Amino acid sequence: MAEASRATMEIDLSSLSLNVNMVGISLAIFTFILFFGYTTSASKNPILLQLTLGVNAGAVFSFALSALYYYVLLYSRPSNHPKVGAHSNRATVCFSIGLLALLLEPALILFTIKLYIPAVVALVFFLVYVPIYVLEYGTIRSIIRAKPPPSGGTGSESPPTVR
User: 27: closest CA among 57, 48, 3, 49?
Assistant: First the structure.
């Protein structure tokens, strides 16, 4: 039981670390867009530039919120807090939103600088990825629900969050 609890805590720590890294990556992209995009694209297509920056800000916010929920899980899961499942689900949903926003950015950036062919290719890749992600997320959730409780447990423990 203690080994399973330790493994779950390591997964939560890893997820927290991943989210913090994704926030850093998103902020780096945001800075890059502002530094290069604002001077070159603001006059060409200001609305698309603002949309791109807004999507990036949404990704930063979603990853930061997901990191917060994983941080809460580090303390709530060992104490068997009643909201462990809700925190886990919120962390996963926020991560998913941030990931999808981050994956949409290449297409938006390419449209902003009027590179239409690679922008359309990036958008097609994004549109193909979204249903695959939803399908696989549903598969993972059904596997987690069907998983029997760990031996010696009460069955109230939440399984580790898997993206």
Answer: 57
Query: Would the pLDDT of 105 be above 90?
Result: no
**List of residues 6+ apart from 53 with CB closer than 8 A:** 30, 33, 34, 37
Torsion, CA 162, CA 132, CA 108, CA 58, rounded to 10:
-30
The distance in angstroms from the start CA to the end CA of the chain is 23
Residue written as tokens 């596997």?
Answer: 143
**CA angle (17 as vertex; 13, 23 as ends), nearest 5:** 145
Q: Give the burial class of 67: count Cβ atoms within 10 A of its Cβ; 0-12 exposed, 13-18 middle, 19 or more buried.
A: buried
Residue 161's alpha-carbon distances to 56, 93, 150, 158, in angstroms, are 25, 11, 15, 8
d(CA 109, CA 33): 8
Contact 44, 116 (CB under 8 A): no
Tens of pLDDT along 9-38?
787 778 778 878 888 888 888 888 777 766
- Residue 50: how many other CB atoms lie within 10 Å: 12
Residue 2: which pLDDT band, with cuts at 50, 70 and 90? low
